[in-house]
Amino acid sequence: MPDLKFENANALYIHLPFCSSKCPYCDFYSVKYTKQRVDLYWAALFMELEELTQKVNNDLLQTIYLGGGTPSLVDPFFIGELIKKIKNSFRVIPAAEITMEINPASITEEKITALKRAGINRLSVGIQSFNDQHLKFLGRRSSSENNKRILTLVDQYFDSYSADLIFALPEQSLNEFEIDIEELLKFNPPHISLYNLEIHENTPFYQRYNQGELKLPTEELDAEMYELALEKLKTAGYQHYEISNFARRGYRARHNYIYWLYQPYLALGPGAAAFDGNCRSQNLADLNLYLRYYNPKNSTFVEFMDNAGGKNSELEGRAMKNPKTKATKIRELNCLSKKERMAEYSFLALRTAKGLFYHKFYQQFNVDFKSLYKEEIAELKENKLIKEGNERIYLTNRGKEVANKVFLKFLLD
Amino acid sequence: MQTDKIRNFCIIAHIDHGKSTLADRMLEYTGTITDRKMQEQVLDKMDLERERGITIKAQAVTIEHQGYELNLIDTPGHVDFAYEVSRSLAACEGALLVIDAAQGVEAQTMANIYLALEHDLEIIPVINKIDLPSANPQRVKEQLLDIGIDPDEAILASAKEGTNIDQILEAIIKRVPEPYNGINQPLKALIFDTLYDSYQGVIAYVRVMEGSVKKGDKILLMSNQKSYEVDEVGFFDPAMQKKEELSSGEVGYIISGIKDVRNCRVGDTITLKNNPAEKALPGYQKVQPMVFSGLYPTDNADYEILKEALEKLQLNDASFTFEPETSEALGFGFRCGFLGLLHMEVIQERLEREYDLDLVITAPSVEYQIIKKNGEELKIENPAAFPDQSEIDKIKEPFVTAEIHLPEEYVGQAMELCQDNRGDFKDMQYIDQDRVTLKYEMPLSEIITEFFNQLKSKTRGYATLDYELEGYKESKLVKLDILVNKEVVDALSIIVHDEDSYQRGNALVRRLKEVIPRHMFKVPIQASVGGKIIARVNIPAVRKDVLQKCYGGDVSRKRKLLEKQKEGKKRMKQVGSVEIPQEAFMTVLERNENA
Q1: How many CB pairs under 8 A join A and B?
Q2: Which of A275, B14, B75, B209 satisfies CB 3.0 to 4.6 Å to B188 for a cystine?
Q3: What is the pLDDT at residue B57?
Q4: Architecture category of domain B291-361 in CATH
Q5: pTM for the full predicted model
Q6: What share of chain A is helix, strand, coil (3-state, %, to 5)?
């Protein structure tokens, strides 16, 4: 199978696909958490990591991101081992940003301190809401009270952290959202991400939405909420540095910035995607397959299971179908055309407040952005969706609200 | 074959009462078809017919049984094809009246009985599906008595299980009269259907009433006086089988190099050129389409493909018409004429399925007669082509007599619906204790919108509808225009009754608001009559449209979502600066009660 070779990768994403329960809006890959699965997974993950070191050249990791799933379900000891292993396998700068997502429902003070000792230096806290009804609706196992307690603890132990809020929920009022923001601002977190509820295919919400059971707020209310948030966060001293992200000075998410700047990134774990600047390779979102492929003893899967001493009906079921074969295909490779890359570059760069710099585009593609998109730029400027300044373009506030309409213009036939 | 050894019959039934299954069983029982793998319902040939459980084209098959030649003519089972049905019946002396033992007598059962009586056919009642747990043959017999058919003559059968097929065949031989023996008279053959074959040309399905015809004969079609030489005659088994001669009383086919079905019309009489009959058989009509709609390729590049497809379909269907038409909104397309809504749906489905075409279809319309103030008379079936309101003196529209057959408990609902659709109550009759036939005079234009669907839903599917054209009557009609972003969209114009215009205009603009996506600017949707705006809604500008999350694993997916959005825009019709999705053109049909 053709595979990527990574030059100058600066970021590493690791997917930890375990959850206690699946939130009905979430379409990230996850399976139910069991300790035994994590044990098996860890061995496999280390193997993929070994393999990855062979494909990487001139790496200098500036950021590592552990996402999920619910990484906070995993024993911090394992996290520590993983970070050690990464530091032994790649060149990691001393001031690297090492982020892990945590769920307030599965974290304790003990774990928080253990994660810090393990080498994590930034936490992303899935708060989502301070309204118990809304938390329940979103399938979150935390409460408003617990969210506050955990934020207090996180703030106590971590200098850098982010808190997520979801808004534009069915029947949510502007006032309710305002309360959510005000509650969050009491903690003055260094970084905030705001997402409106999106309905993704293959989620329970999608079904309910299609059956007419979920009535999302109108575009108008959604926009009012967003505008309210922009205003409140600005007053509170946050920089709106990307469509959905806000940070106090010095606390931008460096890892995510690498995505928006269209730089290469490495990835590990089922469902995770890597990018080498031209191609994207995505591991298949299938833990069982992953475990069959990254099989440390090079034994058949059934033996592997036996050795692990585990019994798990779903894993066994899959293994039984194909008991003696090792998985052969583990990831999808998708090499992008130049047109696709130029479109992606444009819409990613435009997500940031700084916008798209013409000279950087030229460096990347050897194409003059202004002449390539001459008409589009003129039209968007006229409609006040973008502004031009100092050899760059960036979204206006209206442009941020209807960003998809702007991004569409940069797709090339 | 001696006429005393021939029996010609058809099977008439309400939809789903088991007509085609019974035909299959008879073919099997008599060994006409031995292949056990025969597809269910041999006589309904088109996939579409099989799927919908209806017969669209008539079929024929000759069954040999105990030295007799039994000719079964399978008739179309839908009101749209009433004329074809009547010609098929005219080719028979007897009819099997199939009634579902559980459902009992239904609207079409009654309509069929009247038809059979009209053609003086011997009726053999068959109470079918006696194997069903809910079968109640005794009740059906009582119903038969009520409608003047001797219940003792009814045969109890199960076509599904093959019960009593022998009795049915015996009854056909004993009770259906032998055909009239006119062998010594000049040829009179009734065309009851036609089929187009690309090698052989038109195949005429005929019943020879008098005389005989063989290969080499010079025949004459009596309606248009065109003459052809016979290449082949034969019968159906059910495949075509050549034969020396078709003579008085027999059913079969004639091939004579006719290239265009329009020259060989159902109901016409074939005679011999050198020895012509004095008079044609009665009942010939040139059928005219009653329902019209515009068919446009979504992709303008498909225009030629659509044209070829329509030409091919017309080869087999003389009742379907089309002519080029241009719409400002939709570009180049065709105005097509159909016998009725089902006929329209069938043609549209065939175009989409057999020719893989993606079509925009405008709301169906009827043909209006317009008398202008200057005395000029126009026939117009495209609302967009209506003259200015100020030039019009009178508008006439086609009216039908609608018969609705339904359980008594839904009568109130159905009457209300008829009244809402400008129905004029004519009659109400009880068929039995709890079944009622309502008779209304209604404009055809009302029937061809959502009427039938609404009737079905208001009566939980129990009502059936039949209608027959009455004639043209003056109505106070107006043309309702729709303006999108201040521009009239011609393909959205409809003709409505003056009194309904306000309500229809309002419902329509609201519905369009749901269907047309938001644009970057506010888009007003207006309804107007004679230049006066009667309803208006605004589609607000896009307020928020942003993919909120976008990180490493999402990028490709987000790009694909954007690409899909862009693709979707391409499939819409661009009218001015507004993109209108295909479905908007059909919303004109809908009458949302809540709107």
Answers
A1: 97
A2: B209
A3: 54
A4: 2-Layer Sandwich (3.30)
A5: 0.70
A6: 45, 20, 35
